[in-house]
Amino acid sequence: MTDETELPAGVETAIGPAFARAPELDVRPGTPRGTVSAFVMRSEASVIYPGIRRLENEVTRRRDAHGNRIAAAEAEQSAPAPWLRTVWVYAPPGAERMGPLPFLCVQDGHFYLNLLPPVLDNLIAEGRLPSMAAVMIDSGGGDAQGSQRGLEYDTLSPRYADFVETEVLPRIAAETGLALTDDPEGRAAMGVSSGAACAFTMAWFRPERWRRVLSYSGTFVNQQSPPDPATPRGAWDYHARLIGEAERKPIRVWLEVGEKDLHHDDPEETWHNWPLANRRMAAALAARGYEVRLTFSRGGRHADPRVAEATLPGALEWLWRDWPR
Question: Residue 162's domain spans which residues?
Answer without folding.
Answer: 12-50+80-319
